[in-house]
Structures are given as structure tokens and as C-alpha cells.
């Protein structure tokens, strides 16, 4: 490269937002858009969603293999045993203003947990895996009950007789879920569990590359996920659906927003540019099942009408958030907790990425495309 003054004749490749830039190597997951597959440790996520549950997905992401029946039971017991949270954590969370966003409470809780980790400076794979299981065990309680505290309500005590997923849903709603509700919620956790390198995962890996601890990396990921262009989309979708009460009304609302050139959440994806997110189709089927079970298909009809309009007018297709939003609403989950739940489920994938980063580390230090004025002497 030949430099002339401040500029280089052969400028480095610059892609705004790092679009299509390969930033790292990983053995965890890959979005194979040509074959329309989401690969997790070599398995198709959509095929996995028909065969396994979220607990098995945790094992696949952290251990690298699908568990057998005994291993699955051991994981469930482990998650149940490692869910205890120091009372001091609850004391701190109870002091947060009631105006605190649930994701800020979640972020605070993660930071506080670091102080109770006696092995905080140990970045070994073995300790990080142990830490990941403990965080996955604690997050449902922390997420649900920090929200209840913000609402001025008492904490709900976890029910150890329930499965991991059923207990999570119970903590969120205060009601023991039916088998169908448990299955559908578990499916959503599995579909959200890992998705290659979105902003939050990249954030976690960048922080981990400094050899910061797992809590610090996850805290950064929460902050990333809080943004409406990333994890906040499911909340925005549900608020849109609640503005009207019919498919016709929903279409008219979307048409008005399109006319005003407003961004409509739940459609389009940086990776699935011209195809439907395959996870959205699975969640759409779950909405069909839940609607039939409840005898109420209003949200299903509205979503289908919106999907048809956006495909016709903009060539855009739903992403996972679009159909997850009404599913969560029908499960009785408060809208403010949709994105925190996204983070809880994604923690399985995030911790796998942090472990991989620590184990095969190289500090991220990119360069910039300078658009300022050239150097001039004083």
C-alpha cells in the first residue's frame, strides 16, 4: 500500500453496519440462507424444533451434542438446583425506581451477580460452562420477579415441581401453564436460543475478546438487545396489534404507516432479505394451535392480513418477532417482558459464544473509514 499524505491509494473495504462482513470463525451456528437452514452445531434448527426442547438445546450449545434421556433429566435437575439467588441481589433490585425498564433491571441483576461469583476471574471452559448453567437457572427468576418488584407486587416463589419451561412461564404469569402452553412457550425459547451473529452476540464477543468476564459480556448484550431495531421488535408488534381490533383495521393501520414512510416492526431481516424467516413459520403454526385451543383467532387473522399486505406492497416477510408477539400475549405474558424473555432464551447461545471467544481469543480492533479533513500543519 502506498500512502500519499493522509490517504491510502488502496482503501480498505468498507461496509456500513459491517453488512456481509465475516468477522469471526465459529463452530456454533450458521445462517445458510441459500439452503434456507439455520444450522446449530450441524443440526437444522427447524428440524430440531420438531424433535427436542429448550433444555436439550442448552446441552447442544454448551456441550456440543444432543443429550440422551438421562442427560436431559440431569440438566433439568441441575437447572433446578442452581437457581438460588442471594437475598442481597433482591434488596438491590427492590431499590430501583418503578420507572425502570425491565431490561435495565435485567442488566443490573447480571452486574450484581458478578460480585457473588467466587471464581469470577477464572475464564476456563469448565468454569465458564458451569457459570452458564447457573445463569440459565437464575435468569427466569431474576427476570420475572424483578418485573414484579417494579410493579409493586410480591415475588413469586419458583415451583421446583415444574419443568424449567413451565416454571419460567409460571413465574411470568402467576398461573400454572397447561401442557399446550408449556409446549408453545418452550418452542419459542428454542427458536430464540441462537442465531449466529446478530448485534447482541457480536457485542458479547467483542467484550469477551478483552477477556472481560461472562457477566460483563452479557450485560453488553442486554444493552444491545434493548434497542427496538434488535430485540424490541416483538413489543412493538404487539402494541401495533392492540391499536385496532380487526384484520381490516390492522391493514388500514399498516397502509397508513407505509404512506407515512414509517418503519413497521416484525418485517424484514438483515439476513433474510427476500425470504421469510423460517422460525416465523414455526411460530405462526404455534399461534394457529393456541388460537384453536382458545377459540379466538382474532390475532391470527390480523397477522395473516398484515403479512399478505407487506409481501404485496414491500416484498417483505415476517421475522420471528411478528408471530411471537401475539403468542406471548395469549400466554398472558406482560408486553414489557417480551424482550427480556428473548434475552433469557438467547443466553444459551450467548454463553456458548462467550466460551468460544475466551477459548480461541483474539482482541477485536477494527479500523475506520476516515471522512474528516486531511492533515494540515499549524
From TrEMBL:
Reaction catalysed by this enzyme: oxaloacetate + acetyl-CoA + H2O = citrate + CoA + H(+)
Pathway annotation from the record: Carbohydrate metabolism; tricarboxylic acid cycle
The entry's keywords: Transferase
A UniProt-annotated Pfam family: Citrate_synt
PROSITE patterns (UniProt xref): CITRATE_SYNTHASE
Record-linked PANTHER family: CITRATE SYNTHASE, CITRATE_2-METHYLCITRATE SYNTHASE
Family: Belongs to the citrate synthase family.
Protein name: Citrate synthase
Organism of this sequence: Alkalicoccobacillus plakortidis
Gene that this sequence comes from: mmgD
Amino acid at each position: 500500500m502506498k500512502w500519499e499524505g493522509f490517504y491510502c491509494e488502496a482503501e480498505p473495504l468498507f461496509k456500513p453496519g459491517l453488512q456481509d462482513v465475516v468477522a469471526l470463525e465459529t463452530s456454533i451456528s450458521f445462517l445458510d440462507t441459500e439452503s434456507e437452514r439455520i444450522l446449530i452445531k450441524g443440526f437444522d434448527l427447524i428440524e430440531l424444533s420438531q424433535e427436542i426442547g429448550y433444555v436439550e438445546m442448552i446441552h447442544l450449545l454448551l456441550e456440543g451434542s444432543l443429550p440422551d434421556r438421562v442427560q436431559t433429566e440431569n440438566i433439568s435437575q441441575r437447572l433446578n438446583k442452581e437457581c438460588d439467588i442471594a437475598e442481597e441481589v433482591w434488596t438491590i433490585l427492590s431499590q430501583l425506581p418503578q420507572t425502570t425498564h425491565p431490561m435495565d433491571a435485567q442488566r443490573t441483576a447480571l452486574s450484581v451477580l458478578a460480585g457473588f461469583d467466587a471464581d469470577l476471574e477464572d475464564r476456563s471452559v469448565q468454569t465458564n460452562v458451569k457459570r452458564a448453567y447457573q445463569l440459565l437457572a437464575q435468569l427466569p427468576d431474576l427476570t420475572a420477579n424483578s418485573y414484579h418488584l417494579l410493579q409493586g407486587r410480591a415475588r413469586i416463589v419458583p415451583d421446583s415441581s415444574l419443568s424449567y419451561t413451565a416454571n419460567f412461564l409460571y413465574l411470568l404469569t402467576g398461573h400454572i401453564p397447561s401442557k399446550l402452553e408449556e409446549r408453545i412457550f418452550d418452542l419459542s425459547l428454542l427458536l430464540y436460543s441462537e442465531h449466529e451473529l446478530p448485534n447482541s452476540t457480536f457485542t458479547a464477543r467483542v467484550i469477551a475478546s478483552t477477556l472481560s468476564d461472562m457477566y460483563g459480556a452479557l450485560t453488553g448484550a442486554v444493552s444491545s438487545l434493548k434497542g427496538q431495531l434488535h430485540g424490541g421488535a416483538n413489543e412493538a408488534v404487539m402494541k401495533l396489534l392492540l391499536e385496532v381490533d380487526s384484520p381490516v383495521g390492522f391493514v388500514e393501520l399498516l397502509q397508513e404507516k407505509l404512506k407515512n414512510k414509517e418503519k413497521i416492526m416484525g418485517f424484514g431481516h438483515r439476513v433474510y432479505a427476500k425470504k421469510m424467516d423460517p422460525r416465523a413459520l414455526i411460530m405462526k403454526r404455534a399461534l394457529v394451535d393456541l388460537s384453536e385451543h382458545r377459540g379466538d383467532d382474532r390475532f391470527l387473522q390480523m397477522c395473516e392480513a398484515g403479512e399478505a399486505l407487506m409481501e404485496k406492497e414491500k416484498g417483505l416477510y415476517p421475522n420471528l418477532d411478528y408471530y411471537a408477539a401475539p403468542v406471548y400475549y395469549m400466554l398472558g405474558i406482560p408486553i414489557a417482558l417480551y424482550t427480556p424473555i428473548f434475552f433469557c432464551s438467547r443466553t444459551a447461545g450467548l454463553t456458548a459464544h462467550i466460551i468460544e471467544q475466551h477459548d480461541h481469543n483474539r482482541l477485536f480492533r477494527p479500523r475506520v473509514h476516515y471522512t474528516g479533513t486531511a492533515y494540515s500543519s499549524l
